[in-house]
């Protein structure tokens, strides 16, 4: 017999709701640009607890190892790919996180055959402070030649001290990097019926075709006047002749559109090739 108050079943304890992981927060919805950058920096800090992860210039992350060595990750192209949603977002985030984790660790010297040349713009040089830490050559206008290590899963800018340790003389660096690119890249292909044309050669180093002297000696025969070219992104190069108003108008318009909307943007500057050298094209 039970007396008042009647016995009640013991309530099960309520488990506190667990906080969503940083990755879950990045995947639960499409974050704004600032939210995405902050969450990604938090994810890196969680995965690299012994390193210091800090921002500079809003879209650049520096990972500083306990020994003081520093690596840099540029987030703009990462953000564009995340926002577009053309790739599986979790795989995309994991890929970039793995790359940053590797950059945060001690690394062996690159092989000489993996040293390549990339075309970058002045903004890249300024944001990443590349010129002060890396060997770079000024091509013309806002275009620069930066040296990097090509690996199957990443491209890493090489610091000047690394080039010194490799024993590559400064006078031979560009020739080595271009020869390596010629071995790595598929044959360049020219598309179009004129008066302007598009070059392709894989995806990552098409802009570096600007450094292939023999290629431009051949292409000059296709245009009226001197060759005028533009590299709006790392995977697009367009060219026409300096005497073609239609060609110049087309590559100028298309270069601006691609540079302002595409990932891995470089520059919409038009450059002209004379006597084997590039200079900024003056339409006047």
Describe the structure.
The chain is an alpha+beta fold. The protein has three domains: about 20-105, no CATH class; about 110-185, no CATH class; about 190-280, no CATH class. The chain has helices spanning about 20-25, 35-45, 75-85, 90-105, 120-125, 130-135, 160-165, 175-185, 215-220, 245-260; strands at about 50-55, 60-65, 70-75, 115-120, 135-140, 145-150, 155, 190, 195-200, 225-235, 235-240, 270-275, 275-280. The strands form three sheets. It has a six-stranded antiparallel sheet, with helices on one face. Strands 4, 5, 6 and 7 form a four-stranded antiparallel sheet that branches. A three-stranded antiparallel sheet has the order 1-2-3. It is globular, with a radius of gyration of 25 Å.
């Amino acid at each position: 017999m039970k007396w008042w108050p009647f016995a009640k079943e013991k309530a099960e304890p309520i488990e506190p709701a667990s906080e969503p992981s940083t990755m879950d927060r990045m995947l639960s919805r499409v974050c704004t640009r600032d939210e995405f950058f902050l969450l990604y920096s938090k994810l890196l800090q969680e995965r690299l607890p012994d390193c210091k992860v800090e921002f500079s210039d809003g879209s650049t992350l520096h990972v500083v190892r306990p020994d003081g060595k520093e690596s840099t990750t540029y987030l703009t192209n990462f953000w564009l790919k995340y926002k577009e949603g053309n790739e599986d977002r979790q795989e995309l985030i994991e890929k970039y996180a793995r790359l940053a984790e590797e950059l945060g660790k001690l690394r062996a010297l690159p092989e000489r055959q993996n040293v390549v040349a990339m075309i970058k713009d002045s903004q890249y040089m300024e944001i990443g402070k590349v010129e002060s830490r890396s060997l770079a050559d000024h091509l013309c206008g806002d275009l620069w030649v930066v040296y990097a290590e090509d690996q199957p899963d990443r491209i890493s800018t090489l610091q000047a001290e690394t080039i010194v340790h490799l024993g590559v003389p400064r006078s031979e660096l560009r020739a080595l990097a271009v020869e390596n690119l010629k071995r790595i890249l598929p044959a360049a292909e020219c598309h179009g019926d004129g008066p302007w044309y598009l070059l392709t050669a894989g995806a990552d180093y098409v802009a570096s075709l600007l450094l292939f002297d023999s290629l431009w000696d051949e292409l000059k025969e296709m245009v009226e006047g001197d060759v005028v070219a533009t590299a709006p992104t790392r995977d697009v190069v367009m060219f026409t002749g300096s005497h073609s108003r239609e060609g110049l108008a087309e590559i100028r318009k298309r270069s601006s559109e691609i540079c302002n909307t595409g990932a891995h943007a470089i520059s919409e500057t038009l450059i002209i090739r004379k006597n084997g050298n590039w200079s900024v094209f003056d339409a006047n």
